[in-house]
Amino acid sequence: MSNARIFRYFKTSPEIIRLAVMMYVRYLLSLRNVEDLLHERGLDITHGTVRFWWNRFGTISAAANPP
Questions:
Q1: Residue 64 binned pLDDT confidence (cut-offs 50, 70, 90)
Q2: Is the separation of the CB atoms in 35 and 50 below 8 Å?
Q3: How does pLDDT run across 30-56, given as a tens digit for each residue?
Q4: Is the pLDDT of residue 65 over 80?
Q5: Measured between alpha carbons, how far is 45 from 5 in angstroms, rounded to an integer?
Q6: Neighbouring C-beta atoms of residue 15, cutoff 10 Å
Q7: Residues near 41 by Cβ (< 8 Å), separated by ≥ 6?
Q8: DSSP character at residue 30
Q9: Count of CA atoms in the C-beta half-sphere (13 A) of 28
Q10: Cα–Cα distance for residue pair 5/25, rounded to 1 Å
Q11: DSSP string spanning 40-66?
Q12: pTM (2 decimals)?
């Protein structure tokens, strides 16, 4: 499945979604910590959004980047 199809209905850029999911998984941060880090970078994204992205794209990113 191409990246354009995966992120088709999201207003946020795929790079930001990948960054949030990567922060949550790779650095073992809480959802609120990811929210705070993105807020420091000027992005207003809630921890609920990060949770939704993780549920939606977590398995896709894990399959694309094996350990």
A1: low
A2: yes
A3: 999 999 999 999 999 999 999 999 999
A4: no
A5: 22
A6: 9
A7: none
A8: -
A9: 0
A10: 23
A11: HTT----HHHHHHHHHHHHHHHHHHS-
A12: 0.82
